Amino acid sequence: MINKLLSTAIKFYLRSQVTKAEDLQVKIVGKNRQILQGYIPQVLLCCNRAVYQGLFLRQIEIHGININFNLPEVLKKKPFKLLEPIIVDIKLGLDAADLQASLDSPLLQSGLSDLWQIILAAQLTDARTEKIVDSVIEWHSIAIASETLNLRGTYQDTTGKVREINLSTGIGLTNDHTLDLSPLKITSESVSSELGEQLEIELGTDVAIEQLVIESEQMLCSGKITINS
Q1: What is the dihedral of CA 41, 46, 52, 58, to 10 degrees?
Q2: Cα–Cα distance, 144 to 44 (Å, whole number)
Q3: How far is 131 from 176, CA to CA, in rounded Å?
Q4: Residues pairing with 220 in the sheet
Q5: CB 63 within 8 A of CB 69
Q6: DSSP assignment of 169-188, as one string?
Q7: What letter does residue 137 receive in the DSSP assignment?
Q8: Based on the number of CB atoms within 10 Å of its own CB, is 67 exposed (0-12), middle (13-18) or buried (19 or more)?
Q9: Helix (H) and strand (E) counts in the chain
């Protein structure tokens, strides 16, 4: 009874966090005595075709341990909440169509904007890039190739004319907290520039990527993340 009630509460909590989730499954591992104290030793969940804040994900698998939660409130049919941060193992899979569909996501747009500023900072020694340093890029497409992401967008030059720009970059791991972008190439009507050195992106201590595979038409990622609430 308690497992069924809790599974339902977790499913309700997860569905409140996503716009869409198909085939959502939750498995709770623990004794009734532990769960009745507000403690779950293990929880496993998986779902297909999830949409989280505009990000389209083909498949998600999550394994969490040592979870303390608000049992008294759950028993009153209130939302499930974590009482302290947990570290979970997570596996994500998405394909080219998912990535293109995610392009309007505020999370992805923010990430691409931050990436563009980092790239420009690394490229400032190249005078040719000065023409687009202050430009806002509107990204229209993103495609997956073997170990490479290709983006196409537009920007306004200093005369107000709309120009096309293309960004191509390989993606690897320097360590579990750092992405390595190399080789990285920018081309447009006025610019053709390639960054010869590695460009590293720090992901922060809440993320630890163990595997990142980018193949034609799909991307697979596994690692650990810290969930604070």
Answers
A1: 150
A2: 29
A3: 35
A4: 93, 213
A5: no
A6: EEEEEEETTEEEEEEEEEEE
A7: P
A8: buried
A9: 5, 12
Q: How far apart are alpha carbons 178 and 197 in whole angstroms?
A: 15
List the domain boundaries for the chain: 2-84, 100-220
The two tokens of residue 220 are 């697979």
What secondary structure, in 3-state letters, does 62-82 show? EEEEEEEECHHHHHCCCCCCE
Nearest to 10 by CA among 40, 55, 36: 40
pTM, to two decimals: 0.79
Q: Say whether the peptide bond before residue 85 is cis (omega within 30 degrees of 0).
A: no
Within the chain, residue ranges assigned H as helices are: 2-17, 32-35, 71-75, 96-101, 106-123
Q: Is 60 left (phi over 0), alpha (psi -120 to 50) or beta?
A: beta
Identity of the amino acid at 84: E
- The single-letter DSSP state of residue 129 is G
14 φ, ψ (degrees, to nearest 5): -65, -40
**HSE value, Cβ hemisphere, 13 Å, CA-based, for 162:** 5
Q: What is the mean pLDDT of the chain?
A: 84
In tens, the pLDDT along 153-188 reads: 998 877 788 888 898 888 889 999 999 988 888 887
Paired strand residues for 92: 60, 221
Residue 18: strand, helix, or coil: coil
- Measured CA to CA, the distance from residue 62 to residue 44 in angstroms comes to 6
In eight-state DSSP terms, residue 14 is: H
Q: 31 — phi, psi (to 5°)?
A: -85, 150
The residues with which 174 forms a beta bridge, in sequence order, are none
